[in-house]
Specification:
globular; seven-stranded mixed β-sheet; alpha/beta; binds 3-[(4S)-2,5-dioxoimidazolidin-4-yl]propanoic acid; binds fe (iii) ion
Length: about 400
């Protein structure tokens, strides 16, 4: 039997296809044909041929909606215990993010709360955050470990991430971030901790819990040499590499990541010209995180104009985490990418669709094109720029995930 086919009519489609003549790859009077979980055809309605449509085709009136690819949040730390509102207060009373980290707060305090939480508790706290993102049209999300920092707790985080993907209409990509911080039991023995990270990675990968590997290369994180050990292990195991690079200082992490053909380097406020060139040559995607820039009140901007002229693909993400970006709105990040980083609304939308897919190494989504996953969102807006323009509202009317209308 044929899988059920449906055709969406009465809509505009921002296909976000690269190299399209129209901005946003926009098709004014569009038709989309969905066959099972796959987008079978997308184009101008007048080009829709009768032989595309099976006998059992169902016609759906999109009521004039704008249709975009499902949004992809490609950098989150969504699974964690507790929160850091107290630390936010401390910062407002004069302490800096790095001061707090050095005094044993910061990431370490979330590690404590995450270790103390059961798998069920973690899942329930994280579900609230996930649901906010889904309400805005997210259909793929990356979730990092990195608040467990010991085998059983990193495993617990990754299992919760996987369980969220099983329980909700969203595709979850997991990233092992064992090298997020040095846990207290390894204080002053960070090289020993890197040994432990390599052991954890090997085991968790065998358990099927790891889709990619990340590290925090920074003076309050891990050195270049330590980061390279982690990359080498990831490469041996055939896992894609990502990096938290040049967030608080220029440590040359981007060049190292580029040498290992990292799929993305993230943050990048302090990225140097050499770093830009290295990423361009390696085809590494830049993931920009305006929420963390805003919340930490950074003043140094990522080199957007240089990334743009070097042809580095730019993605945008929430960085959802309790310390530097307690944010569960990807639409707000579109607006902030424009206002704070000066991306155009088209670049911002590409940043949460086509380029976010690149940042995860996924080539089956992120644009509306035949043969790709049928993940898309209907919006009650007239033009795609409205998605970046307005903040604090959500014009989503419907999500289609893997071909299923939610
Ligand atoms: N950079 C960040 O912005 C997050 N992690 C990282 O390496 C912050 C994590 C936290 O403060 O809990
Ligand atoms: Fe992060």
């Amino acid at each position: 039997m044929n899988s059920p086919t449906s055709v969406w009519l009465n809509c505009k489609a921002a296909t976000m296809q690269a190299g399209s003549v129209q901005p946003y790859g926009l098709i004014e009077d569009a038709a989309l044909v969905v066959n099972g979980s796959v987008l079978q055809w997308v184009g101008p309605r007048r080009d829709l041929s009768a032989d595309l449509l099976a006998n059992n085709t169902q016609t759906i009136d999109a009521k004039g909606a704008l249709i975009t690819p499902g949004l992809i949040d490609c950098h989150t730390h969504l699974v964690y215990g507790g929160n850091r509102a107290g630390e936010f207060e401390q910062r407002l009373n004069g302490a800096s993010y790095e001061d707090i980290a050095k005094a044993g707060g910061g990431i370490a305090s979330t590690v404590k709360a995450t270790r103390n939480a059961t798998e069920l508790e973690l899942a329930s706290q994280s579900t609230h955050r996930l649901l906010s993102l889904l309400a805005e049209g997210v259909t793929t999300i990356e979730i990092k470990s990195g608040y467990g920092l010991a085998l059983e707790h990193e495993r617990k985080m990754l299992r919760v991430a996987r369980s969220l993907g099983a329980a909700h209409p969203v595709s979850v990509q997991t990233t092992f971030l064992g090298a997020h911080a040095v846990p207290p039991e390894f204080a002053d023995r960070s090289d020993d901790y890197v040994d432990a990270v390599l052991d954890m990675l090997a085991l968790l990968h065998i358990e099927g819990l790891v889709d990619a590997v990340d590290a925090f290369c920074e003076r309050i994180g891990f050195s270049l040499a330590q980061t390279e050990r982690i990359f080498a292990a990831a490469k041996l195991q055939g896992l894609p590499i990502k990096l938290h690079a040049e967030q608080l200082s220029d440590s040359g992490g981007a060049q190292l990541a580029a040498r290992y053909h990292a799929i993305s380097c993230d943050h990048l406020e302090w990225l140097s010209d050499d770093g830009v060139q290295a990423m361009a040559l390696a085809g590494t995607t830049a993931v920009l995180l305006p929420g963390a820039f805003y919340f930490l009140r950074e003043t140094r901007l990522p080199p957007v104009a240089k990334l743009r002229s070097a042809g580095v693909a730019m993605a945008i993400s929430s960085d959802c985490n309790p310390g530097s970006s307690p944010c569960t709105s990807l639409l707000l990040m579109l607006n902030m990418a424009c206002t704070l980083f000066r991306l155009t609304p088209e670049e911002s939308l590409a940043g949460v669709t086509r380029n976010a897919a690149r940042a995860l190494g996924l080539n089956d989504r992120g644009v509306l094109a035949p043969g790709l996953r049928a993940d898309f969102v209907l919006w009650d807006v007239k033009s795609p720029a409205e998605l970046s323009y307005a903040f604090g509202s959500c014009p989503r009317t419907q999500t289609v995930f893997n071909g299923a209308v939610l």
